[in-house]
Amino acid sequence: MKVFAISDLHLSINSEKPMDIFGPVWDGYLEEIEKDWNQKVSDDDVVLISGDISWAMRLGEAVDDLNYIKSLRGNKVIIKGNHDYWWSAIGELRRNLDEKTFALQNDAVRFDGVVVCGSRGWTVPEGMVESQDEKIYKRELIRMDLSLRSAQVLRQDGDKLIVMTHFPPFNYKMEDSEMMSLFEKYNVDIVVFGHLHSYDKKQKLVFEKNGIKYYLTSCDLVENKLVEIL
Q1: Which CATH number goes with the domain that contains 77?
Q2: Most buried one in 93, 102, 123, 147, CB count within 10 A?
Q3: pTM of the model
Q4: pLDDT for residue 20 is more than 80
């Protein structure tokens, strides 16, 4: 079994929200992703999609985008991104998925030798004055802790623990954060994230920090190809 990751698909199967207006990298990007996906993924493999899945505003409008994901090979695990306004009640969402597509919300899922958990995350606060971002960030820390606790219940000896989060779990200086401390507390092996659509010399697509391997998987930054992480 292999584990792949990609994020920020920004699907709009049945809406007028073309992504190519954001630059040539988005021209025909879904065809590129699907071609690469079909070449790499077998039915037993796992693909992690770390948020910003659909431009839809309501779940009913996202059904065709979810059906597109369901049609792709392998087991798919999804989390919420900041643009996923359609992601509402988790029970209703899961009723629109199949047995090979898993939506995480304060919980975890186990495959053969791998446990996956995660939460959306938020912008890491800067400065001393408490802001609205900091309030949201603190709520996301609670949600991530719940997800990691759930993963610990499922984790067996030798299992790898992978965390999915939409926002990068550090600031632009890539400094340590409370979120990263949580990952270290629970002995996480790998973290995959997205959200970023540009990066400077300080930001790498793959790097290791405090014994944990981090993967930035925004589809436009990885040339619309799945990243094999395990």
Answers
A1: 3.60.21.10
A2: 147
A3: 0.92
A4: no
